[in-house]
Design a protein that fits this description.
Layout lengths: L6 E6 L15 E2 L2 E2 H9 L5 E6 L2 H5 L8 E4 L6 H12 L4 E6 L7 H9 L6 E6 L2 E2 L3 E5 L3 H9 L14 E4 L1 H7 L12 H12 L3
Parallel strand pairs: 1-4, 1-6, 4-5, 7-10
Antiparallel strand pairs: 2-3, 6-9, 7-8, 7-9
Helix pairs in contact: 3-5
Length: 205
């Protein structure tokens, strides 16, 4: 499939799951651990999977396929921006689809559409309710220099580096044509979120 050429899947799994109180990546949804579900979906539109973690010990407890590439934070304690940098640096592809490990309902048609929009740009980022969704986005390795500059200055808001690169924003109307319920962006932070995710998975989402 042409849309898969030179595309790496990058899963951000460095968070501490503070609101849930336990490692949400391991929570069962639809009969499998959450991170396994995320990797399974993302692998259908990418050539490899890179999982970003904050340390090797965290990676050791994750049920990762043998083919998964593990990337430990290059800039520790730098949040999702550092995770994007580390994952994109480790990726074999020129482009990476970045998602968080707690997004159980990734919409593959939406990602195929986003990948198809990358020509002439350095990043493809959806916008919902007036705000960019940078942990559900597509990035070129051309972004690395700009991301690293922000990391070195401890300016960790992801969207701050967008000023230095060419971004194709995907309007909410474009997103909702493919994913009207916006479930691709649903993420698990709390027990209530987890309960809803389990119910949605049981309903075949």
């Amino acid at each position: 499939m042409a849309s898969k050429v030179n595309i790496s899947g990058i899963v951000l799994a460095g968070g501490m799951s503070r609101r849930l109180g336990r490692n949400k990546a391991l929570e069962p949804i639809g009969g499998e651990p959450l991170i396994t579900r995320v990797i399974g979906r993302l692998s259908r539109v990418t050539d490899e999977i890179v999982v970003n973690v904050n340390d090797a010990e965290r990676a050791a407890v994750l049920p990762l396929p043998k083919t998964t590439k593990v990337a430990v934070d290059i800039y520790p304690d730098s949040g999702s921006l550092g995770g994007i940098y580390t994952g994109l640096s480790a990726a074999s592809g020129d482009w990476g689809i970045v998602v968080a490990c707690d997004m159980p309902f990734l919409n593959l048609e939406l990602f195929r559409r986003m990948v198809g929009l990358r020509e002439g740009y350095d990043a493809v980022v959806p916008v919902l309710d007036g705000r960019p969704e940078p942990t559900h986005a597509v990035y070129s390795k051309r972004c690395l220099h700009f991301i690293e500059a922000k990391l070195k200055s401890n300016d960790l808001k992801i969207a701050k580096f967008f000023d230095g690169v060419r971004v194709r924003y995907v309007a909410q109307s474009e997103v909702e044509q493919i994913d009207p319920e916006r479930l691709s962006f649903f993420n698990v932070n709390t027990q209530e979120d987890l309960d809803r995710a389990v119910a949605l998975a049981a309903a075949g989402k």
